[in-house]
Specification:
The structure is a homodimer of 481-residue chains.
Chain A lengths: L5 H5 L1 H11 L3 E2 L10 E2 L1 H19 L4 E2 L5 E3 H4 L3 H7 L4 E6 L2 E9 L4 H11 L8 E10 L14 E12 L2 H21 L5 E4 L11 E8 L5 E11 L1 H5 L4 E2 L5 E2 L2 E7 L2 H9 L17 E5 L5 H20 L4 E3 L7 H10 L4 E5 L1 H6 L1 E6 L5 E5 L3 H26 L1 E3 L3 H9 L4 E6 L3 H11 L2 E6 L18 E6 L3
Parallel strand pairs in A: 3-7, 15-16, 15-17, 20-21
Antiparallel strand pairs in A: 1-2, 4-6, 5-6, 7-8, 8-14, 9-10, 9-22, 10-11, 11-14, 12-13, 17-18, 18-19, 21-23, 22-23
Helix pairs in contact in A: 3-7
């Protein structure tokens, strides 16, 4: 079968809406509040599997899950002044309880630094308790005035994993930043999402952070999308909330903090990145159903029933071996209609089982990613499927990385950079002297957004694309979500 | 060791606050918004285990998990008039986004009937899709004006499992009510929470329901607490939202719905019900840590280290056998201090491992519930612990049921009933003619709350405690949370 990526790349926005709706992942645009969608059962399971992976990586590195209230009083949110400035125009406010006006406005959490630091101030007294790493997975709210998009730009972000850590020293917090980056790399690798890691420029840091490191991926339409951020908060929040701990030397001081987040966009990326014109291809690591069995009707009813029985038997065999399998037993749909449905749900492997397979005791296997097919004996099916699931997982990751890398170009000519970005072809790296002035000028001239610069040292034997001084590194620019 | 239940029964409220704080389950009263608490890591794990049990029972009976937006527009919430009347004074309203006044006020969901029915109206068209059973586990909000209590009466209920089902006929919905009741019985049995099941009287139904069935348990102070409700909604919401489906006979009609909920109170009950003056006793089915190992220091450092090594080895053996175990390796606390800590965390089994156990290759086991102790050889430890965990689980359930049953009294004398309730001794059943008038009079005269009447037929050869007509059933009354 021919694999095309026309709709997927040329009309990604329509493709994505179509997949979310027809694949029954997420109902968007019909709930009567702008920017808020509904996770349908199939999408919810995908989301749960992704959350499961995030939880495993965090739990196994000493992070402890907690759950804080949704609401933050206005006076508390205002304690860190840069922070509130960054969020002020995006906060939803609760002002009434029943018919009573509240004395203090309550914010729907846009993020939880101040809420969590408030309680850390009560819980943590000594360096002996550090490092401390909390996280929660919650809804956060942003009163977005830009155009909203399902899973990508929402007013209710329903899957915000936010980690918050506390350390004795600046360097300890920096080490935590590095650990967080390593954890995120593993999470995105497991999710088969390729990424570019950059330090965000000074003018685009998280409100209240000393440093912001960000993971961006490239979506099918060539736009970059931020999928994870890691912030070194220094003592900004501990000072604002007067949170001190006893240090090793006996003195009292403000601890250093970090925070890092991953959102619904992780789910959006998993659905989008490996897609084709048939729909998404879900990586086996998170696919809610790994194998779907489509029984192919025979010429007579009796044989059709035997095929169904054989199909169910095969499927049970997979489930017993922890390979989540479902047999589509609908008798009103044709096999072709079922192929369409399960392709748009992105199930990685399909089995087609008809009279031929029944008689020969075989199964006919089709991979969703490249539509290659295999026929194996029933007894060999478990091993073959396990092998194919591993292959699919690796192939998806490898191809997505190749695709991402092919979309990063270097240019020392600002006009050429602008032209590349105009073609929606991903990320352009331009040589940069390191000054904010030149950085902002680059954004202005390309009408694009600066993602930042590599965190590792980058040798650039070139001149800054703006001021023509010696370049210290490259600045990455892209059209973004 | 002597087991006392003085603090637990006489000053339950203080006992509960003490356990939540010292056991590090839930930080309450210190977050700067009334009625909103913080789930700390240990409490969060307990909550997750309880949610896991709820999910298993729902998933295995064809319920599908979804996630709806937190906010409900005012006009939508007003569509079912009885419903909004019931909740109107308890709703938190979002009225501003940034500095902009919103055109339509948005409610923080108090419950989700109207939100979910709105989308069901788009998703469900035919009887062939029915029955449909959705559920979500979310925060709901009530602007409580009564005194709030941790986990029991909150302004943010963070663990609201709400199921919503759709059926072709009234009878199908009634069957679903029965299924829901059976599921809840299994959930509460697994959680070792005893209950009384009643149909709530007409004047205390869920706002918008035709029938409300409720599970109440009795807390240590003798007050009844509602821990689960099941509602037959009839066509009230489908009519209000103009939600029709095609029936088997081809006609279009409003489907019948049910909804049922369990909240944070399930966690509160698990912590409260089996407690004693040392703290709670968590049932093994949900305890985050099933076995804690306390190494007992020896006279010299070398032997102490060997004890520690042996302790860790034992603990790893349990973990490998899926018995969650933790060794308390803190070298600054005495064994006695550790006993105190892990008792207040309710860990069902403690091992004390010292030089004697090291030399003899044994483990010393102590049950948290009755403080009985056992010494077994290391090789027998796994089996012994498994056996004890089962015994503890069964003993907790059995004793809690005995305790509950001993707190239900029958009285055909309203003055005596009032006196019993004044002593906080649980639930009183009084003979009742079935009229609302007499029911309300009973509430008034006893200064207590009517829980309702048994759902099964109850033979009562007695006269109504108010009107002296022949009693049709009993009415249950209690001081309640």
């Amino acid at each position: 079968m021919q694999i095309t990526r026309e709709k997927w790349s040329k009309n990604f926005s329509e493709w994505f809406d179509w997949v979310l709706r027809e694949g029954e992942f997420y109902d968007y645009g019909r709930y009567p509040i702008k920017g808020m969608g509904v996770w349908m059962p199939y999408g919810f399971k995908l989301r749960q599997n992704i959350i499961g992976i995030i939880r495993n990586f965090l739990d196994s590195t000493g992070h402890e899950e907690v759950l804080f209230p949704l609401l933050i009083p206005e006076d508390l949110l205002r304690r860190e002044s840069t922070h509130i400035k960054g969020f002020e125009e995006e906060v939803f406010w609760v002002t009434k309880g029943g018919s009573t006006d509240l004395d203090v406005k309550l914010a729907l959490r846009p993020t939880s630094e101040v809420a969590i630091t408030t309680m850390e101030n009560l819980w943590l007294k000594s360096y002996k308790q550090l490092p401390k790493k909390y996280y929660q997975i919650v809804s956060v709210f942003r009163y977005e005035t830009k155009a909203t998009r399902p899973m990508i730009r929402l007013r209710e972000i329903t899957t915000f994993k936010e980690a918050h850590t506390v350390h004795e020293t600046y360097d300890d917090a920096q080490k935590q930043v590095e650990e967080a980056i390593e954890i995120y790399k593993k999470i995105f690798d497991t999710l088969t999402i390729p990424y570019v890691l950059s330090e965000r420029p000074e003018w685009d840091r998280f409100a209240g952070a000393l440093h912001t490191y960000a993971f961006d991926t490239i979506m099918p339409d060539g736009r970059a999308m931020q999928i994870g951020t890691v912030h070194h908060l220094g003592q900004n929040f501990s000072k604002a909330l007067d949170f001190k701990i006893q240090k090793k030397d006996g003195s009292l001081d403000y601890p250093h903090q970090t925070s890092y987040g991953i959102s619904d966009r992780a789910v959006a990326s998993v659905i989008a990145i490996h897609g084709d014109d048939h729909g998404p291809v879900l990586p086996p690591s998170v696919a809610p159903i790994k194998v779907v069995v489509i029984p192919i009707p025979a010429k007579n009813e009796e044989e059709t029933q035997q095929v169904m029985k054989y199909s169910i038997e095969i499927c049970e065999m997979f489930n017993k071996n922890n390979i989540t399998c479902l047999t589509d037993q609908d008798t009103e749909k044709t096999p072709g209609e079922k192929f369409y449905i399960w392709e748009i749900k992105g199930v990685p492997i399909r089995l087609e089982i008809g009279p031929r397979e029944l008689i020969s005791g075989t199964v006919f296997i089709k991979r969703r990613d490249n539509f290659k097919s295999y026929t194996v004996r029933k007894e060999e099916a478990i091993n073959k499927i396990k092998e194919l699931l591993n292959e699919i997982q690796e192939d998806l990751r490898r191809k997505a990385w190749e695709d991402l890398k092919s979309r990063i170009e270097y240019s020392n000519d600002i006009e050429k950079a602008k032209k590349i970005l105009g073609n929606n072809s991903g990320i352009v790296e331009v040589p940069w002297c390191g000054s904010n002035e030149c950085g902002l000028k680059i954004e202005e001239l390309t009408n694009a957004r600066v993602l930042g610069y590599p965190i590792e040292k980058r040798e650039v034997n070139d001149k800054c694309v703006i001021c023509k001084m010696n370049a210290k590194t490259v600045l990455r620019i892209a059209k973004t979500y």
